[in-house]
Each structure stands twice: as structure tokens, then as C-alpha cells.
Write a structure and sequence with these properties.
The chain is of the alpha/beta class and 145 residues long. It has a single domain, classed as Rossmann fold, CATH 3.40.50. Helix content is 42%, strand content 21%. It is globular and about 50 Å long. Bound molecules: adenosine monophosphate. Adenosine monophosphate binds next to helix 1, strand 2, strand 4 and helix 6.
């Protein structure tokens, strides 16, 4: 059965190109709609919760920067459109699952570094997204630089 709606999740680093390439190929071969998502993680989360200072300005800068990078990607790939691009705050796993459900996506595409050993203990977004996903998940193998 072909996929109808593919959601590609990007971290906005240079590593997102191979992930988008794979998602594009699949959207073309399946005749599927292609949506793009990036999640801006709340800064307080990186510091482990409560932070005794106001991070709202920094957070806004982070969001604006992400918007610029996302727009650059949309301009670079003709299959991506503003209409089907999403930029939200939150925790990547939770937000990606929520969006996939809301938009009725049947495939989520993420990048995976194939970590092992100690690095695996630090966790990976691909692993995280796979658990409890509302649809199929494709982890595109990213070559270590
Ligand atoms: P990581 O395990 O964090 O190195 O990320 C692996 C993959 O997870 C990336 O290639 C993206 O597909 C996805 N990903 C990581 N962070 C985010 C994010 N903030 N928003 C959306 N997708 C993300």
C-alpha cells in the first residue's frame, strides 16, 4: 500500500539534507503529500527544568533563527511548501507524534546516527520517535562525519 502523507522531521543542521532527500524520493514514488517539521526545544529543558532567569528573549531568537533556516530549506526543495511546514515548541518526540496524528501522516522520516555503546545511553531522537509512534517510522542512516 502506498504512503499518502509523509512527515519529515529535521534538526536544521547540514545533516538534514540526506533525510529530506529520502523523504522526497518516497513522496514522489508513492505520490504522497510531504510535510516538514522542526521542534524548538524550550531552553529550560536543556538546563533540566527550573532556571532562575528570564529566557524569553533568547528563546525568541532561537525560534526566529529556526524559522529562517526552515524557510531556506523550503526554498531549496521544490517539494516542500510553507503550507505544509511546521515549527513548534516542545519536546521532539511528543510534538512529532502529535503532528503525525493530527495531520494523519502514515510515515515519519527521521535521521539516525546508529549510535552504539556509551553514545546510545545519551539517547537518540530516532529511537525516541519510534517508541509509541502513531504510524510507520523510517530512520535514515546518517554517515558519521
Ligand atoms: P538526534 O538523535 O538528535 O541526533 O537526531 C536524529 C534525527 O532526529 C534528526 O536527523 C531529525 O530527523 C530528528 N530530530 C532531531 N531533533 C529534532 C528537532 N528538534 N525537530 C525535529 N526533528 C528532530
Amino acid at each position: 500500500m502506498p504512503y499518502h502523507h509523509i512527515l519529515v522531521a529535521v534538526d536544521l543542521t547540514e545533516e538534514c539534507d540526506p533525510v529530506i532527500h529520502r523523504a522526497r524520493e518516497l513522496s514522489v514514488s508513492n505520490g504522497a503529500k510531504l510535510s516538514l517539521v522542526h521542534i524548538v526545544e524550550p531552553m529550560a529543558m536543556a538546563f533540566g527544568g527550573d532556571v532562575p532567569m528570564d529566557l524569553s528573549q533568547l528563546q525568541q531568537q532561537q525560534f526566529d533563527q529556526a524559522r529562517e533556516r526552515l524557510d531556506r530549506l523550503i526554498n531549496k526543495y521544490p517539494e516542500l511548501t510553507k503550507e505544509y511546514s511546521h515549527l513548534t515548541y516542545g519536546q521532539p518526540r511528543q510534538e512529532i507524534h502529535h503532528l503525525a496524528k493530527e495531520q494523519e501522516c502514515d510515515l515519519i522520516v527521521v535521521g539516525s546516527h546508529g549510535r552504539h555503546g556509551l553514545a546510545l545511553l545519551l539517547g537518540s531522537t530516532a529511537n525516541d520517535v519510534l517508541h509509541g509512534a502513531p504510524c510507520d517510522v523510517l530512520a535514515v542512516h546518517l554517515v558519521k562525519r
